[in-house]
Structures are given as structure tokens and as C-alpha cells.
Design a protein that fits this description.
This protein is α/β, with parallel strands linked by helices. It has helices at 7-11, 17-26, 40-46, 64-73, 77-82, 91-102, 117-125, 137-151, 162-178, 193-205, 222-228, 251-260, 269-281, 293-300, 320-333, 350-360, 393-405, and strands spanning 36-38, 50-54, 84-87, 107-111, 129-132, 154-155, 184-188, 210-216, 263-267, 309-313, 337-345, 364-371, 381-389, 409-410.
Length: 412
């Protein structure tokens, strides 16, 4: 999607550059000015400088503190006395909890049953009262809204409010100061609050900069919404990237995105896990799958981005178990895992001989499954399933070829 940005368009939008500048003042001494780190590896792929905006190193581990603090800071004294309520599986929960505590406002956060325990514990430690409700975020949101109706607490939406969008837009102001030569900014998208805020700030000051949004293929509500000219809800969403797992764009972010964002791309689960792995190995940065989505877009089509490029790493709150699974998925996607099934003679020493061949091939054995009882096997056969760590796609081919050359029957 390519659109023009005119003064008349900007003037009609629900958030202005002045709103973002005011939010920036409000956040002084609260939100960190996060680092902008260069990536030599990504720069070599893109053919131009690539910089990583490290919102994963923001307080609470994501950009969400910015919007939450600006929203709560704008409440009247009476609203503050009633407290605030939010619903979130992680980043927004922590942002609201800390923002409310810093401002002396009581907060209640509804989280879905089964939310990662580290995120629940962090939200409580930031000062919120946590209530577990619902199996999915939609159910949790409805519970939070019902609580707001019953108690008078102010509901703090994760992305669909002008103050929240203005707060997230301060990331854009920082980017322009840190990298004035930037030509393309790439941002992950769920409900759209972050890219909408960045777009307001950036397009007002530098309309020549290209803004690219990135969504997970399994939770890409913006492409059909932009085609329809209005927010459209998806029937279902499925992605490892919980931070952008949103089934419907927010009304306010959608209006801004349609006017100011140049393009929305989608990325696969393989690309997301590969991007997370790259951030960890090459940039030494712990990033959640949603935060790695801009890097996934760069990896998927590096030649499509005019440099210098800034990729916003929106968050780093990843559950250790999810991180472990995602890294394994990323290594498989990068061709560094190899799974094989082989038929062996059922005799002493056969498995040891196989291990010797793998040692010669320089493949690291992660797991071995030894099956004797499958009815498809002959009386003198066993089947072995191997999970190997390799050096890359070419090494995978070499390992399989060496086993066949040694006389092994490789099934997969």
C-alpha cells in the first residue's frame, strides 16, 4: 500500500505531531531513550546500513510503557482515584502496572489463564493486582471491560486510544534524532498503535522516509482491512508472536496507518524464528518473536528495503520455554537441525557403528530413538530416528550422503 502524505491529511488525523511532542515531554525521566545498534550482518544482506532500535531494552522490556504512562498521566484526579484496569498476556500488562505505580494509581490487570508465569510475576512486582480470566485474550478483554463498568476503573486499551498512540510515537522522534539519515523504518504490527505513532512523528518531519509495517502471516488483519477500507476482524489468529497476535486493527491506528504507512508485509513463522535466532547470535539481544518481526522481513526479502534502514525491536519479554522452542525452530529453519530415520540390522554394535559414521561426518547427535516393535520392520531390523545439529543446509546434505555411501538406508 502506497499513499501520499499531505498537510491536510495530517491535520485530519486523531493524533498530531504536537501530541507526540507533548508525550515526549511527559515521558522525560520515565522512559529510556533506547539504544540504536548497528547490525553488520543485516547490513551486508540489505546492502546498506541497518540499525536496530532496541525497545526490548526499555523499562518493562517493551515500548508499551510509553503509551500506558502517557494515557494514565492524562487522567483527571477523579479518574485516577477510581484506578485503572487493563487486559494483556504480557507487555501491555507490565507497562500499565509500572506506569500506574509511578503515578500513584491503583491498577488491576486481567491476564488469560495459562499466561507465562514470569510475565504474571513481573506484572505483580510492578504493582498491579493480577486476575486470571479466560483462555484467550478476547475473553480476558471482556472481563476487564466488565470490571471497568462495575467499578468505575478506567480501561486502558493496549493500542486504540490517541494518548497511547502519541506515547508510542516518541520512538519515532528518538529514531530521527539518533539516525537522521534513515530512509526506511520497519515496525512490527498487531493492533497498530506503535507504527501509527511512529508514522505521525516521522511523516510530519520527514515525509520522504518509507514506513513498512510487518505482520505475522497467521495474524495479518491489516492487509484485508486496508483492502476493505475499514478494520476487518479475522476469524482466527495463530502465530508464535504473541505481541502482534491481534485479530482486528484498532480504529485509531487503522485510520493513521491507512493515511501514512507506505507498505504492510507479512512474514512466516520460519522467518520469525530465524530472526529471533539471528538477534540472539549476531546482535547479542534477547528479543521476543513479535519484536523480531522487522528483522524477519529483512531476512525474507533483503533487497526490498532502501537504506539506511531502522528496524524497531519492540520487545524482549519472552518466556524461557517459548524461547527454547523458538530457537530450535529457528535452527531448523536455518538448516542447522537434521532429522533422519534409518533401518539398521538388529545386532550388537550396529548403533555404535552408526554413531561412528556421524562422528566422522562431524554431526552432533541431539537425540536418538531406537524402535524394535514396529510391525513394518523385519525380524532382524530396527529403526533409528536421529535428531542432529549441523553446520547448515550444505552440511545436512553431506551428512545424509555420507550415511547412504556407508550403506545405510535413509528413510527421511
Amino acid at each position: 500500500m502506497v499513499t501520499s502524505t499531505t498537510g491536510d491529511t495530517a491535520a485530519s488525523l486523531p493524533v498530531s505531531l504536537d501530541d507526540v511532542r507533548l508525550a515526549h515531554k511527559t515521558l522525560s525521566g520515565v522512559a529510556r531513550t533506547t539504544a540504536l545498534e548497528g547490525s553488520r550482518h543485516l547490513s551486508s544482506l540489505v546492502g546498506a546500513p541497518v540499525h536496530l532500535k532496541c525497545e526490548n531494552l526499555q523499562r518493562t522490556g517493551s515500548f508499551k510503557l510509553r503509551g500506558a504512562y502517557v494515557r494514565i498521566a492524562g487522567l483527571s484526579p477523579e479518574e485516577r482515584r477510581r484506578g485503572v484496569v487493563a487486559a494483556s498476556a504480557g507487555n501491555h500488562a507490565q507497562g500499565v502496572a509500572l506506569a500506574a505505580t509511578l503515578l500513584g494509581v491503583a491498577s488491576t490487570v486481567f491476564m488469560p489463564v495459562g499466561a507465562p508465569l514470569p510475565k504474571v510475576a513481573a506484572t505483580q512486582e510492578y504493582g498491579a493486582r493480577v486476575r486470571m480470566h479466560g483462555q484467550v485474550v478476547d475473553e480476558t478483554l471482556e472481563a476487564a471491560r466488565e470490571y471497568a463498568r462495575a467499578t468505575g476503573a478506567v480501561f486502558i486499551h493496549p493500542f486504540d486510544h490517541a494518548d497511547v498512540v502519541a506515547g508510542q510515537g516518541t520512538v519515532g522522534l528518538e529514531l530521527l534524532e539518533q539516525c537522521p539519515e534513515v530512509r526506511t523504518i520497519v515496525v512490527g504490527m498487531g493492533g497498530g498503535g506503535l507504527i501509527a505513532g511512529i508514522a505521525v512523528a516521522v511523516k510530519a518531519l520527514r515525509p520522504d522516509i518509507r514506513l513498512v509495517g510487518v505482520q505475522a502471516e497467521g495474524a495479518a488483519a491489516y492487509p484485508p482491512s486496508l483492502a476493505a477500507g475499514k478494520p476487518v476482524a479475522l476469524d482466527s489468529v495463530s502465530t508464535m508472536a504473541d505481541g502482534i497476535k491481534v485479530g482486528r486493527p484498532g480504529d485509531i491506528p487503522f485510520e493513521i496507518t491507512r493515511a501514512l504507512v507506505d507498505e504492510v508485509r507479512t512474514v512466516s513463522e520460519d522467518a520469525l524464528s530465524s530472526a529471533l535466532l539471528l538477534c540472539l547470535e549476531r546482535a547479542k539481544l534477547v528479543v521476543e518473536p513479535a519484536g523480531a518481526s522487522p528483522v524477519a522481513a529483512l531476512l525474507s526479502e533483503p533487497g526490498a528495503f532502501r537504506g539506511p534502514v531502522a528496524a524497531v525491536l519492540s520487545g524482549g519479554n519472552v518466556d524461557p520455554l517459548v524461547l527454547q522452542r523458538t530457537l530450535r525452530h529457528g535452527m531448523a529453519a536455518a538448516g542447522r537441525y537434521l532429522s533422519l530415520r534409518l533401518r539398521l540390522s538388529d545386532r550388537p554394535g550396529a548403533l555404535a557403528a552408526l554413531m561412528g559414521e556421524l562422528s566422522v561426518a562431524d554431526a552432533n547427535v541431539l537425540d536418538v530413538s531406537h524402535v524394535r516393535t514396529d510391525p513394518r520392520l523385519g525380524l532382524d531390523e530396527v529403526e533409528v530416528e536421529l535428531h542432529l545439529e549441523t553446520k547448515g543446509p550444505e552440511h545436512c546434505v553431506e551428512v545424509a550422503s555420507s550415511l547412504r555411501a556407508a550403506g545405510y538406508r535413509v528413510m527421511s
